[in-house]
C-alpha cells in the first residue's frame, strides 16, 4: 500500500524542517515581558513540545523519527530553563492557563518541575480558577492539562464536551474554518492527542466517520493544508480500524503542498515547492504534518497494513 511509504516520506521531510529551524521556536527576551506576544513565544514552543511528545509515543525508540523528536523535546525543555521559567510565568500571571497547557506536554513525557506544580496546584484550588469563563474546548484543554500534570481536575471532561459544537452533532453544512479547528482540538483534548481513541463517545465517532471525508475534501480543495492535517489527525484518533481509502486519497492530495525543504504552508502554495515560506506562515502546519503522519503510520501499523515495513523502517534520519 502506497500510503505508508508516502506518509513516511512526508513525516521525515517535515521533521527535518522542524529540526533545521529549531531556533525559530527558541524563547527570546520577550517571553516574560509584560506585554509580550504569547502567540509568537510560548505557543510555538508548546506546540513543538506537544508534537514531539506525540512523535515519541507513536514511534519505536530506534526509529529516526523518535530520535529526532526526543532531541527536539530536550531542546524545548532547555528553553524553559528545565521548567524554571514556568515558575516565573506563574508568579507573573497566576490565573493564566496557557503556562499549564504548555507545561502539560512536558509533564506527560516525564519532564517535571515540582515547584511549578505546587504553585499551580494552589491556584487551581481557588474558586477563581474554577469559575473562569472559557470556551468549552479550552476548558477541555485545561482539564486535560491538569490531569497530565498531576493536578486534581477542577471539573469533568464529559460536561465540557457536551457544550461543544461537535457534541451537538450539528448539520454538516454548518462546518467552516472556525468550527473545523474547534472540533479537531475537542478530539485532541478528549483523546490526549490521539493516545486514547476509545475516549471518543460512539455517537461522536460515528458522526465523524460519516462527515470527515467531505469536510476534508473541501479543505484540500481550498488548499487549507493546516486544517487538513488536523482533520487527518482526527481521522487517526477515532476508535476502530482506520479509513484506509480516506487516508490514502487525502495524503496523496496533500503531498504536493510540501516544499523541497519539508515545510508545509498553512494555506495555498500547491506546486510551489521551491519557495520557502516564512517561519510563522508554516511552522504550525509543518508541525501538524508531523503529528498527523505519525498518528497515521501508527494506526496503519496497528491495522496490519501490508506495507508495515515502510512504516517501521527508516528512510533516512531527519535533522
Q: Can you walk me through this structure?
A:
The chain contains 15 helices and no strands. By secondary structure, the protein is an all-alpha fold. It has helices spanning 2-20, 42-57, 64-79, 84-92, 98-108, 114-124, 127-130, 136-148, 157-162, 177-190, 202-221, 225-235, 244-254, 279-302, 308-312. It has a single domain (2-312), classed as Alpha/alpha barrel (Glycosyltransferase), CATH 1.50.10. 45% of the residues are buried. Mean pLDDT is 92; it is low at 306-319. Helices cover 60% and strands 0% of the residues. Helix 1 runs parallel beside helix 3 (64-79) and helix 5 (98-108) crosses helix 8 (136-148). It starts with a helix and ends in a 7-residue tail after the last helix.
Main traits of this protein?
319 residues; mainly alpha; Glycosyltransferase; 15 helices; globular; disordered C terminus
Task: Note the topology.
Blueprint: H1 2-20, H2 42-57, H3 64-79, H4 84-92, H5 98-108, H6 114-124, H7 127-130, H8 136-148, H9 157-162, H10 177-190, H11 202-221, H12 225-235, H13 244-254, H14 279-302, H15 308-312
Helix pairs in contact: 1-3, 1-13, 1-14, 2-3, 2-5, 2-14, 4-6, 5-8, 8-10, 10-12, 11-12, 11-13, 12-14
Amino acid at each position: 500500500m502506497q500510503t505508508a511509504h508516502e506518509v513516511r516520506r512526508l513525516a521525515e521531510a517535515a521533521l527535518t524542517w522542524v529540526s533545521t529551524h529549531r531556533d525559530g521556536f527558541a524563547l527570546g527576551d520577550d517571553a516574560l515581558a509584560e506585554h509580550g506576544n504569547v502567540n509568537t513565544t510560548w505557543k510555538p514552543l508548546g506546540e513543538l513540545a506537544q508534537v514531539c511528545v506525540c512523535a515519541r509515543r507513536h514511534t519505536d525508540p530506534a526509529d529516526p523519527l523518535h530520535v529526532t523528536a526526543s532531541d527536539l523535546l530536550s531542546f524545548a525543555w532547555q528553553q524553559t530553563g528545565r521548567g524554571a521559567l514556568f515558575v516565573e510565568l506563574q508568579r507573573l500571571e497566576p490565573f493564566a492557563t496557557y503556562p499549564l497547557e504548555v507545561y502539560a506536554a512536558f509533564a506527560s513525557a516525564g519532564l517535571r518541575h515540582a515547584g511549578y506544580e505546587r504553585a499551580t496546584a494552589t491556584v487551581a484550588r481557588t474558586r477563581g480558577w474554577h469559575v473562569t469563563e472559557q470556551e468549552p474546548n479550552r476548558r477541555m484543554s485545561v482539564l486535560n492539562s491538569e490531569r497530565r500534570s498531576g493536578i486534581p481536575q477542577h471539573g469533568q471532561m464529559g460536561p465540557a464536551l457536551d457544550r461543544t459544537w461537535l457534541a451537538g452533532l450539528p448539520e454538516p453544512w454548518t462546518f467552516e474554518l472556525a468550527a473545523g479547528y474547534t472540533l479537531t482540538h475537542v478530539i485532541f483534548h478528549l483523546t490526549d492527542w490521539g493516545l486514547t481513541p476509545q475516549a471518543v463517545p460512539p455517537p461522536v465517532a460515528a458522526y465523524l466517520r460519516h462527515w470527515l471525508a467531505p469536510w476534508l475534501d473541501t479543505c484540500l480543495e481550498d488548499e487549507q493544508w493546516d486544517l487538513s492535517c488536523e482533520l487527518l489527525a482526527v481521522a487517526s484518533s477515532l476508535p476502530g480500524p482506520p479509513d484506509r481509502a480516506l487516508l490514502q486519497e487525502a495524503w496523496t492530495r496533500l503531498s504536493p503542498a510540501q516544499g523541497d525543504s519539508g515545510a508545509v504552508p498553512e494555506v495555498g502554495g500547491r506546486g510551489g515547492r521551491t519557495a520557502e515560506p516564512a517561519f510563522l506562515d508554516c511552522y504550525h502546519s509543518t508541525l501538524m504534518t508531523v503529528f498527523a503522519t505519525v498518528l497515521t503510520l501508527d494506526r496503519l501499523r496497528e491495522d496490519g497494513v501490508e506495507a508495515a515495513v515502510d512504516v517501521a523502517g527508516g528512510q533516512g534520519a531527519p535533522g
